[in-house]
Amino acid sequence: MTHPHTTEPYNFDKIINRRGTHALKTDALLTRFGKTNLIPLWVADMDFATPPFITEALKKRINHPIFGYTQESPGYRPAITQWLKRLHNWNVDPEWLTYIPGIVKGIGLAINTLTNPKDNIIIQPPVYYPFQTVPQNNQRTVIHNPLKLTPDGYQMDFPQLEHTLTQGAKALILSNPHNPSGTVWTRDTLATLADLCAKHHTLVISDEIHADMTLFQHRHTPFATASNTAAQNSITFAAPSKTFNIPGIISSFAIVPNETIRTRFYTWLKANELNTPNLFAAIATEAAYTKGWKWRKALIEYLEKNAQFTTQYITEHLPNIHVIPPQASFLIWLDCRDLHLSHHDLIDLFVNRAGLALNDGETFGPGGSGFMRLNIGTPQSILKKALQQLLKANKGLRTHHT
Ligand SMILES: Cc1ncc(COP(=O)(O)O)c(C=O)c1O
């Protein structure tokens, strides 16, 4: 039976209890927020069941009783390259590809192999916080080129970037599409970025983990396809983990078209045996990319409905909160600055008064203060309950203040 919210028989409305599974989103609430009775809308995974074609492929393998050493399956690379061709029109030579044990780890590995302690690394906040912490914890100097929030959404500040690049930077880490704002960068923006970085010998590390979930007809441009300059001066990281809700399986990969950069990076990965997919990663990746086309479409339809619902609800009932219109993925960036609350009071409103666990905007760096990141990768009934709780808490707050 076709479910009312999708064109396919996938049920994104089903509520699945994740508590007690060691899920970070539910089971780390006490340590991160000080209480457990919160609706968890933070960590960037979804509350939907991993699609059946992936669980079935994994179950089939689990039926065999030996989980010994494995080699990369012959279908692993073609599954990835064909998916990238079909979805993003990107021709990737299988030679350019390697498995990596996670994108955050991949960024750390690239920074360690291709830059030196004290080197400058540029990031564009507000941005996914490991872009700051990974280089910093590896003794690199993180330089900010903050994004500009305009009436048309977030934009890169190129004059400022040019100035920053002249100070000398070994790498720039790009979130493409952007987390937390959900911005899908245009080909022109990426090509300009590529030219500036190449001119100053700054490598671009493009994190494209959210690329397969563009919303409302927006189209993702892989950084390496923006121009030949971009292709020859970049490392791209991607994964099926966000789209198919399998981040716990660790199924990321890297793509490096330039031979010199690739040899430096991959030689080191190989030397440390970090380049071979674990047994389950290869199975899940292959199943996702060979059987996931319709599921991805149904997921996007559902996420678009959740995004529309959230935007409408907030616009109608919470006019002091502004939704940055999401162009990709399941994370919505909420501008709460018109609530005129201190950081402490904003967190108090969401956590203690509304009973919600969202990501605090300040953790995304400069430009994040006064914002909250809402995860809409959840059944719409949960989202509705969360927004109702927020409305009630906000009303209580205003009554209390007047
Ligand atoms: C932009 C971005 N990069 C990377 C990750 C994590 O990737 P991995 O689990 O492969 O380290 C996330 C997860 O939230 C993300 O949003």
Tell me what you see in this structure.
The protein has 402 residues and is of the alpha/beta class. It folds into two domains: 24-52 and 293-401, Aspartate Aminotransferase, domain 1 (Alpha-Beta Complex); 67-291, 3-Layer(aba) Sandwich (Aspartate Aminotransferase, domain 2). The chain has 14 helices and 15 strands. The protein has a seven-stranded mixed beta sheet with strand order 2-10-9-8-7-3-4, with helices on both faces. A four-stranded antiparallel beta sheet has the order 11-12-15-14, with helices on one face. The longest helix is centred in the last third of the chain and has 25 residues, at 293-317. The chain is globular and about 65 Å long. The model is unreliable at 1-7 (pLDDT under 50). The structure holds pyridoxal-5'-phosphate (PLP). The site of pyridoxal-5'-phosphate has 13 residues, from helix 5. Pyridoxal-5'-phosphate is lined by residues 44, 102-104, 128, 175, 179, 207, 209, 239, 241, 247, 252.
Give the key terms.
globular, alpha/beta, single chain, 15 strands, binds pyridoxal-5'-phosphate, disordered N terminus, 402 residues, 14 helices, seven-stranded mixed beta sheet, Aspartate Aminotransferase, domain 2
Give a short overview:
This protein has 402 residues and is of the alpha/beta class. The protein contains 14 helices and 15 strands.
Mean pLDDT: 96
Sequence of strands across the biggest β-sheet: 2-10-9-8-7-3-4
Give the CATH architecture of the largest domain: 3-Layer(aba) Sandwich
The strand count comes to 15
